[in-house]
Amino acid sequence: MRSSGRTPWQxxxxxxxxxxxxxxxxxxxxxxxGGARVAIAARGQEKLDVxxxxxxxxxxxxxxIAADVTRQSDVDALLARTLQHWGRLDVLVNNAGxxxxxxxxxxxxxxxxxxxxxxxxxxxxCTLAAAPHLLSGGGHVVNIGSLAAKTATRYMGPYSAxxxxxxxxxxxxRLELGDRGLHVLLxxxxxxxxxxxREYSAAELTALPESARRPGAGVKVRQLDPDVLAxxxxxxxxxxxxxxxxxxxxxxLFALSQLSPRLGDWLLRRFT
Length: 272
Hints:
Structural class: alpha/beta
Mean pLDDT: 91
Shape: globular
Helix content: 40-55%
Order of helices and strands: EHEHEHEHEHEHHEHH
Low-confidence stretches: none
Number of helices: 9
Radius of gyration: 18 Å
Number of strands: 7
CATH architecture: 3-Layer(aba) Sandwich
Number of domains: 1
């Protein structure tokens, strides 16, 4: 697993939330393969321990920390344990999040609050806790958004609104802290392939068309390999890119939607 030569991530310390599976685990594996020391955080202790054992067995230096990033006390403890164990922090990957389904008139204020708490405010909590350590060494904040962070689609319940907030926060961080050496990367991927299907509640799926229950709520793009995407994220960090949108052709849709909302809406109805 470990790279034979020295890499830009050799002996760096990386914290990945939502790191026990999916894209978060793939990102942790890529950083570990590059020689970084990696802390992975998630709520489920059993799955977290399995991921840590497998990453360690592959040669990675891994620390597993159970934490609920919707709780400030857990975030504070997460940062404290990472710093106590590794002595520094160079990269924060805000990956913890949850997709959603639902038609807009059935999505309650409580649904929006819950999505904002995990998909947006958790990233704010972690970033505020990590910022002093990242700023001292020209570190990185990687915010995992979604294509839905750039344009809303039908039947995604509160998801798009929560990811839009993350995109705005990422830009604000860049504008205010970029000159102080902090690199902020917003990642906006399409649907990511999963080893296990995402379970939605009956309330989320009520009255939705069948296509909206598929990965990405029926968006007509190929599912992404999390390991390949993780590799692209590391390269984007090395180049200190501001955004990574996958697939790249989605940029055209975003641009057209800004120029003509009517055209943008027509395209979204056609391709989602």
